[in-house]
Here is the input.
Amino acid sequence: MLRLCGFHISNYHNKVRIALLEKGIEHVDDSSCKPSQDEAFIARSPMGKVPFLELDDGRRLAESDVILEYLEEAYPQKPLLPKDPWERAKVRELITFMELHMELVVRRLYPLVFFGKSATDEMKQSVEKDIAKGIRGFRTLAKFNPFIAGKDLTLADCAAAVHLPLVSLSTKLAYGRDFLEDLPQVKAYIKMVGERPAFKQVNDDRKAAQAALAPKK
Here is the structure.
């Protein structure tokens, strides 16, 4: 039995969880794990981060993309990567692009938009410039045909479904405008994949976890 350790608000945890559910891999979803620098936690996750995957025999894997690659190789019955090497690489390219040039860019806004921290105009201008470049590049890579990388569901969809809404929400809260609104395909795409049982379950659990953290009125 596999154990996925993380928490339901983590988009990187949710990315892996969607893949597990889509592939039909039996697993335990341990959503009680939070990032920690405690010695006991570091023994399970070298950087004290989530998600990480634990096997019954005590072996562990950290980093979401490494976990996804392992799942593809160990459980090939329902693949989420194309057979063709070039197409496989294009899926990986799209995932890397969304994470490095989009999600990690708007992550700099999270203290401002989600935790009420202050932000300098210089920082906001820097993010605005960088995310504009990221979205420009994303426009050339994403296919929406109907899935993000083409006609078949892939690992890129597991990533897009958790990262793109954060790009939309963060930019809307920080700048008063959803920077993905110029890509009208995004809204329809998120709705489409969100109707799949695996995606819906993960999204519902995320919403429930967020509601549990909300201040009591």
User: Anything to note?
Assistant: The CA atoms of residues 14 and 202 lie 7 Å apart. The first helix runs from residue 11 to 23. The mean pLDDT is 96.
